[in-house]
Amino acid sequence: MESQSQVREYDVVVIGGGPAGENAAQYAVEGTDMTAAIVERELLGGECSYWACMPSKALLRPVAVADLTADLPGVSTAHVAPKALLERRDTWVSHYDDAGQVTWAEGAEIAVLRGDGRLAGERTVRVASSSGDLTVTARRAVVIATGSAAHVPAMYADALPWDSHDATGVVEVPDRLVIVGGGVVACEAAIWMHALGSSVTLVVRDSRLLGRTEPFAGEAVLTGLRGRGIDVRLGAEVTDVRREDAAATGIGKVHGGTLTLTTSDGEIVADELLLSIGRAPRLDDIGLSSVGLTADDVKSGRLPEWLHAVGDASGGPPLTHWGKHQARVVGARIAAAAAGEVAWEPDREAPVPQVVFSDPEVASVGMTEAEAREAGHDVVTSRVPTSSAAGTALLRDHVAGESQLVVDAASHLLLGATFVGPEAGELVHAATVAITGDVPVHVLRHAVASYPTAAELWLRLLEELPRELRIPPASPAG
Ligand SMILES: Cc1cc2nc3c(=O)[nH]c(=O)nc-3n(C[C@H](O)[C@H](O)[C@H](O)COP(=O)(O)OP(=O)(O)OC[C@H]3O[C@@H](n4cnc5c(N)ncnc54)[C@H](O)[C@@H]3O)c2cc1C
Ligand SMILES: NC(=O)c1ccc[n+]([C@@H]2O[C@H](COP(=O)([O-])OP(=O)(O)OC[C@H]3O[C@@H](n4cnc5c(N)ncnc54)[C@H](O)[C@@H]3O)[C@@H](O)[C@H]2O)c1
């Protein structure tokens, strides 16, 4: 039990024990004699382990496999068993018990301090818990890794809508579920909730799904969702929400009586509403003003040398792998500085890949065609049906989607890539490597993929590029 006045000192103190915070602590002290502590107020492992990536993918994978068997002659068609599907989810979230992660932290010699962490001055963090306050000072660095929180506009608040915790932690499957939003959470949750038995309506304010990806990817997902019986209303604005007897019944349970949504596309009556309209860094109430900083300072990286921000809290792309990458970079910087060295880093930021585990799967990295043009590149693209390689066509009977490369005509360098269809998430990594390593497309043509693997789609994409991109660009005159 901590006493009111207890003070402890570590080399590195991390506020927030999600994947980004855990990696920052680990990479800062690993192989050194420095000490680290992670302050966590809920479960060590964060959103990703219990309420986001892990449960959502545990729910989606069996659905994808069942879909595949329905499109693959030679095997019997499998069906989703809702109770077993939820049990699989429970296993993957360790029944909401973080003992395994605590064992990992102890093994890495990282202390876990339970409670609410707030900055309380330079290199100082106050940890408040039911067992009293603890003051922790950091000899070297403090890392903010507090994650992000879902947007809930005032219009929705009284209806107590579901957020992603409820959707990934679903216990009671509502008969009629309306999902507001057309982004990643909406496109993934629609699939597992439909598979569990909900009749799903997606209300999308924009004219397309997955607005930050190539338009052809959003169109393929729209066709996929509608094809499985999900009602997708594009360009529909919600103007009013009413609910009878809203009640805080608990995570994943239906939060009260019937809901009525008034939208520009008519009235929708449902048993539950999942709000998935984006997230924002969780930077309120972490004591930034005690060191003269604001949330904007954190998001724009204007921080004193002892303070760092990683993961969703940094305002960067809210993705686990990106947060973990930032954390490895920051951890290495802290370790190097403590040794009087400077950590090696590439001279530009790595490209950010993302996989949307929708139907069909969408994977992208780097710039879209529109982004590349906007950035002033002379752009060449090549787009082919994802079924157009023997290896992709063999994966199932009907391979939906197209895939595309975006290339800079002057340098022959890959600027971006999007894959839609089976194995998209695996196909995109070669693009990430090519962009990170500045491999021009005339060289990539000589990276031979095995026949007949899905990776041979790369050959199809590269062959579709103009012939002049098959040899090195002419050197600039002079
Ligand atoms: C439904 C869903 C599915 C997703 N699927 C994927 C996916 O497949 N792939 C992917 O890359 N990304 C996915 N994401 C995004 C991913 O979950 C986040 O990018 C990732 O969890 C961010 O990690 P983090 O460590 O920055 O923050 P978090 O995982 O949010 O962890 C932050 C931790 O800090 C703690 N904390 C916050 N404030 C304090 C405080 N003041 N004191 C003490 N502790 C505090 C919180 O309790 C939490 O444990 C998904 C997100 C959602 C919502
Ligand atoms: N597979 C993955 O990698 C994965 C899965 C789930 C979530 N995530 C991460 O979580 C983040 C949050 O996901 P998300 O789906 O909540 O956000 P998102 O940013 O992906 O999509 C938000 C959607 O809500 C719409 N919207 C915004 N404000 C609105 C409003 N007031 N009314 C109606 N619609 C509105 C947007 O137009 C968009 O369609 C994502 O940015 C993503 O990085 C990743």
TrEMBL record:
- Quote the PANTHER family the UniProt record gives: DIHYDROLIPOYL DEHYDROGENASE, MITOCHONDRIAL (PTHR22912:SF151), DISULFIDE OXIDOREDUCTASE (PTHR22912)
Gene3D superfamilies annotated for this entry? 3.30.390.30, FAD/NAD(P)-binding domain
Q: In what residue span(s) does the FAD/NAD(P)-binding domain sit? A: 10-296
- Family matches, as SUPFAM superfamilies: FAD/NAD(P)-binding domain (SSF51905), FAD/NAD-linked reductases, dimerisation (C-terminal) domain (SSF55424)
Superkingdom:
Bacteria
> Which InterPro entries does this chain map to?
Class-I_Pyr_Nuc-Dis_Oxidored, FAD/NAD-bd_sf, FAD/NAD-binding_dom, FAD/NAD-linked_Rdtase_dimer_sf, Pyr_nuc-diS_OxRdtase, Pyr_nucl-diS_OxRdtase_dimer
Q: Which UniProt keywords apply?
A: FAD, Flavoprotein, NAD
- Protein name in the entry: NAD(P)/FAD-dependent oxidoreductase
Q: Where is the Pyridine nucleotide-disulphide oxidoreductase dimerisation domain?
A: 352-457
Cofactor or coenzyme needed: FAD
What Pfam families does UniProt report for this protein, alphabetically? Pyr_redox_2 (PF07992), Pyr_redox_dim (PF02852)
Please verify whether the record's keywords include NAD.
yes
Task: Name the family the entry cites.
Answer: Belongs to the class-I pyridine nucleotide-disulfide oxidoreductase family.
